[in-house]
UniProtKB/TrEMBL annotation:
SUPFAM superfamilies: Putative DNA-binding domain. Keywords: Coiled coil, DNA-binding. It comes from Brevibacillus brevis (Bacillus brevis). This is MerR family transcriptional regulator. PANTHER family: HTH-TYPE TRANSCRIPTIONAL REGULATOR ADHR, REDOX-CYCLING DRUG-SENSING TRANSCRIPTIONAL ACTIVATOR SOXR. InterPro entries: DNA-bd_dom_put_sf, MerR-type_HTH_dom, MerR_fam. Residues 81-118 form a coiled coil. It comes from the Bacteria. The keyword DNA-binding applies. Residues 1-69 form the HTH merR-type domain.
């Protein structure tokens, strides 16, 4: 896949894909005989995983650490698992915060519904 195709498939801009490669989040992107990037299905899967990490609030610095560990091979499996477990805990805490916030919003909606009903009487 070309960089434009990858951008379209991932929703990332061409600039972001180049930036991710520059900072080491994307390693080993192949180049064709003209020097153009040629992304593989494995690159696409990796980018989708990075997007999941990002959408769940993982900082780019932690994503970079994970990527660095990944490029070092199986010797870093325990470190990567630990990093993901810590992130998992953070995501669960975010979910709990969102549930509490949602409950308050629902209470406020109910409050306004009751007010509307009182005003209609």
């Amino acid at each position: 896949m070309t960089i434009q195709q990858m951008a379209k498939m991932t929703g990332l801009s061409v600039h972001t894909l180049r930036y991710y490669e520059k900072i080491g989040l994307l390693n080993g992107v192949e180049r064709n005989e003209h020097g153009y990037r040629q992304y593989s299905e494995a690159d696409l899967a990796w980018i989708h995983f990075l997007l999941r990490l990002r959408s769940t609030g993982m900082p780019v610095s932690d994503m970079k650490l994970f990527s660095d560990l990944r490029s070092q091979g199986n010797a870093t499996v325990a470190n990567r698992r630990e990093l993901l477990e810590n992130h998992h805990k953070n995501v669960l805490a975010q979910i709990q915060d969102l549930k509490e916030s949602l409950r308050e919003v629902e209470e406020k909606i109910d409050y306004y519904k009751r007010l509307e009903e009182q005003n209609e009487q």
